[in-house]
Amino acid sequence: MKQNNATPGMKIFFLSTLSFLLSVSAFAEAPPMSDRVWQWYHHHHHPWDSPTPTPIPTPTPPPTPTPSPTDTPTPSPSPTETPTPTPPSGKRPPRGVAYLLAADQTISASQNCWSNDHVPIVRLRVSASSLEKTEGVYTWTALDTAAGLAAANGKQWTVGVQWTGTAMPTWVKAQTYPLSDGVSAAPWDPILIQAELDFIKAFAARYDGDPNLAAVIIGGIGTNPGFETYVSRSAHDTDILGGDGNDWIAGAQQIITAYATSFSGTPVIVAAAEPFPGDDTSLPALIDWGMSNYANFGVMASALRESSAVEYPPNGLVSTYAASHPCGFQFLHPTSNPDTGGNLAQVCAVGEQLLGAPGFIEAYPPDCDEVSNAATIDQVNIALGVE
Q1: Average pLDDT, the chain
Q2: For the chain, counts of helices (H) and of strands (E)
Q3: How far apart are CA 312 and CA 238, in angstroms?
Q4: Are 272 and 307 in contact (CB under 8 A)?
Q5: What is the pLDDT of residue 307?
Q6: Which three-class secondary structure state does DSSP give residue 100?
């Protein structure tokens, strides 16, 4: 029997080799890993060698069809200039020849204006001092009488209440200034404006619903004794007043807004004139603003004569807006005054041409009462839209 001369190291090497061969044989006969197991194995043993798996795309669902929109017509934008609305009461806008009464004239049935069948409108001019001698206490007698006579005689009536100059009530403590047209407060004075705003509310509450009240002429936005919007006649006047076109516009807008909203069923009209010498922007700015904000707002020019032309700014404004807003004219003087430049027919023809649309023309009593003018007045009424 031979002696086993293998060393311990050799034994260990032999056993290790045998173990390795057996394990390789076992691995070779094992079934292959599935792809999913292999991915798991590869990921957990060598993540830094593993390429980023391509994500499985999520199928995009078919788009939900958008229902066809209902055909809704696009509303047409409202025009800037809209016709004067006819109130529910059936109130007519001012049309035809107006009989122009003197300021603060006593109103009575004996006046020719009420019995003159050819003149469809009677125009009143009154001072605030005659209607509100004491703050908050109103004397409506003259206006109530006019409203009653208009209704009884089938006429329209228009009225303007003046606030500046001597027309301002004594209880209004606004500062006054000696101006070319007389002593007056500045039309933008907040004390004066507040007095006017309070009055306008009471005035409108009483008369806006009168179907025969065809228009209210806005007073208080000039300094002259009449209704035109003159503020300053000279550089001296402007210096004394200490204001400018911006001040005038700001104050006038408050008054116009109060009239236009309080008399919502009645045309409210400004008697236009350039407020300051050489200021040709403030007046059109104010009138354009009023026209764009209030359908019942209108403009008139108070110097109609045979030579009147559209180049005179107030006439131009009347011509611009007569087709869409209440507009008209007032004679400069009775036709007996040579400055008027023509007879009633000639001057009215100029007014009709400048208006180019229905409107009104205020004439003085002597011309309205002249029998020989009756046929002319009838023709003018037709031309101005009297039905």
Answers
A1: 84
A2: 13, 10
A3: 22
A4: no
A5: 98
A6: strand
What pLDDT does residue 69 have? 37
Distance CA 199, CA 222 (A): 17
DSSP string, 233-296: SSHHHHHHHT--HHHHHHHHHHHHHHHHHHTTTS-EEEE---SSTT--SHHHHHHHHHHHH-TT
pLDDT given for residue 225 in this prediction: 85
| Helical pair 141-153 and 190-207, crossing angle rounded to 10 deg | 40
DSSP string spanning 108-160? Answer: -TTSHHHH-TT--EEEEEEEHHHH-SBTTB---HHHHHHHHHHHHHT-EEEEE
Q: Which one-letter DSSP state was computed for residue 105?
A: P
Q: Residue 66 corresponds to which tokens in the numbers above?
A: 């958008």
Tell the burial category of 203 from Cβ atoms under 10 Å away from its Cβ (0-12, 13-18, 19+).
buried
Can you tell me the distance from the alpha carbon of 330 to that of 98, in angstroms, rounded to the nearest whole number?
Answer: 9
CATH architecture for the domain at 96-383: Alpha-Beta Barrel (3.20)
Per the CB < 8 A criterion, the answer to whether 163 and 182 are in contact is no
pLDDT of res. 10:
40
Which regions in the chain score pLDDT beneath 50?
1-89
- Residue of 54, 130, 123 lying closest to 368 (CA atoms): 123
pLDDT at 92: 85
pTM over 0.85: no
- pLDDT for position 224: 87
What tokens were used for 367?
């011309």
Contact 276, 282 (CB under 8 A): yes
In the chain, what are the domain boundaries? 96-383
